[in-house]
Amino acid sequence: MANAQQAKRPTKLHVKKGDTVIVTRGKHKGATGKVVLALPAEQKVVVEGVNIVKKHVKPSATNPQGGIEEREAALQASKVSLVDPETGKATRTRKQIVDGKKVRVAVKSGKVVD
Predict the structure, then answer these.
(1) Quick check: 84 pLDDT over 90?
(2) pTM score
């Protein structure tokens, strides 16, 4: 019943897999990395080298030793911002049609991101 009462979240993000992003809030503020995984339904992204957590893994056929692994955990998508390809700083994007194709353009520098 609780799921039916929750508002439906939008299922798109401002960043894509492969984008270079910078973390704007939280304990990892200022860290940059590539988006490894985008989870639009949950409004989260996994960034390479950021938000590392330790996970206890049971032994299995693929990992007979088991043990403690370090892996990246998901971050809220609103806490990351796209890195401007020209300046290397955080920027927003806008959509523009360039050569008959809709692309993302960095607001600060005007450079095409896609």
Answers:
(1) yes
(2) 0.80
Show Cβ contacts of residue 44 under 8 Å, excluding neighbours closer than 6 positions: 74, 75, 76, 77
Q: What are phi and psi for residue 9, nearest 5 degrees?
A: -85, 150
**CA-CA-CA-CA torsion sign (26, 72, 14, 20):** positive
Nearest to 93 by CA among 3, 2, 13: 13
Dihedral angle of Cα 12, 77, 20, 17, to the nearest 10 degrees: -40
Give the phi and the psi of residue 77 in degrees, each rounded to 5: -60, -30
Structure tokens at 25: 């809030």
pLDDT in tens, 36-79: 999 999 999 999 999 999 999 999 999 899 999 999 999 999 99
- The alpha carbon of residue 82 and the mean position of all alpha carbons in its chain are separated, in whole angstroms, by 9
